[in-house]
Design goal:
Layout (H helix, E strand, L loop, with lengths): L2 E11 L5 E11 L3 E5 L6 H8 L7 E6 L2 E2 H10 L1 E4 L11 H11 L4 H14 L15 H13 L5 E5 L7 H16 L3 E6 L2 H7 L2 E6 L2 E7 H4 L5 H19 L1
Parallel strand pairs: 3-8, 3-9, 6-7, 7-8
Antiparallel strand pairs: 1-2, 1-4, 4-5, 9-10
Helix pairs in contact: 3-5, 4-5
The chain binds adenosine-5'-triphosphate (ATP).
């Protein structure tokens, strides 16, 4: 299986001194859903923003399909879709015009996009509201429109920051279904979350980041052979804390 996303010793510091993310290495392969887990301030958004090219300077390497953002930024970004935790959409557009705008950028043929939009919008129960201005939408509706605009071009790599926050249970279920369907076609998904139950049920692989360091990573199947993901992570956090204290 081909590796879609690879981080090799990825290190990012905002002040040029203390790293917010420190020597993180991980791989996401075709067909995989990868959960990036961590508390507030652990380094999830910093990693995600670097992967999608919003934060540009870092040490180590980020590869998308074997190419770094340095060597092929446009090519890499064309393969990705990124939905931030608080999507900031063009408020003066209607939902459908925004989705079509993204579909135009990614050159999705009209018949293909019409079918995809219909299907996902129907599942998200937002079809009737797509003609309204985005400025009139609730937070959850904006999130749904952002998600539809990402799924409409079937990205090779979908990157999501806390995608389940703010979605109701029905919409969360639809999102999980769409994520699985996208990966079944050979794409890969990298998403951050602090909800361990979601990660345990949805992900093929996970990594937990704490104070910028990966404290545990691997396949969910292997990690949860003897304990729940929550128990595994709590134990690793305690170990990491004890290590820090012993060095203090
Ligand atoms: N723009 C910035 N300038 C300086 N420091 C920052 C900046 N953004 C984040 N940090 C710091 O980097 C560290 C990692 O933050 P990051 O936002 O990546 O964490 P996170 O895991 O995404 O947290 P959350 O779940 O709260 O979004 C934190 O110590 C944070 O204070």
């Amino acid at each position: 299986m081909a590796t879609v996303l690879q981080l090799k010793d990825f290190t990012k510091s905002y002040d040029g001194q203390k790293p917010a993310v420190d020597h993180v290495s991980l791989e996401v392969e075709e067909g995989e859903i990868f959960g990036f887990i961590g508390h507030n301030g652990a380094g999830k958004s910093t990693t995600i923003k670097s992967i999608v090219g919003i934060l540009s300077s870092h040490n180590g390497e980020i590869y998308i399909d074997g190419k770094t953002l340095w060597e092929a930024k446009k090519e890499c970004q064309k393969k990705m879709a990124y939905i931030p935790d608080n999507p900031d959409l063009y408020e003066y557009m209607t939902g459908i015009s925004y989705i079509n705008f993204i579909a135009d950028i990614y050159e999705v043929p009209t018949e293909v996009r019409t079918e995809r939009i219909e299907k996902i919008a129907d599942a998200f129960e937002i079809k009737e509201a797509l003609g309204d201005l985005i400025s009139s939408y609730s937070h959850g509706m904006k999130q749904k429109v952002a998600l539809i605009s990402a799924f409409v071009h079937q990205p090779r790599l979908l990157v999501l920051d806390e995608p389940f926050v703010g979605l109701d249970p029905k919409a969360s279920a639809v999102l999980k279904q769409e994520m699985r369907a996208l990966c079944a076609q050979g794409s890969a998904i990298f998403f951050s979350t602090h909800v361990l139950e979601v990660a345990e049920k949805l992900c093929d692989k996970v990594a937990m980041i704490d104070h910028g360091h990966i404290v545990v990573s691997g396949s969910v199947e292997e990690l949860t052979r003897e304990a729940s993901l929550e128990e595994v992570f709590l134990e690793q956090l305690e170990l990491a804390k004890a290590q820090v204290e012993s060095h203090a």
